[in-house]
Amino acid sequence: MRSDRWQRLGERFEILEFDDTVRLIADMGESLGTKAFFAAIIGGFNNSRGALLGGLLVGVSENLAAAYISSAYKDAVALIIFMVVILFKPQGLLGKKEERKV
Known about the structure:
Number of helices: 4
Distance between the termini: 69 Å
Shape: elongated
Structural class: mainly alpha
Mean pLDDT: 80
């Protein structure tokens, strides 16, 4: 009786719609994790505002590249920005240079 009530509620709001088309794949969040890593390094790994700036820069530039160049190169934009920032400013855009004593 109780499960029948929940089933009717789920059917009414289409909450319990399970389908064979939904599949979980092991590398589903790989591109998201890679872009988040690039954004954190671009902005400055030890600075949360820098990571936020890096994420904004990566997101806007990817969407502009998809709109004006090609959507096939959308994922490559984050890598290109990452390589340019690492070459010219290894601590990130808002990161501070730190010396370590060993």
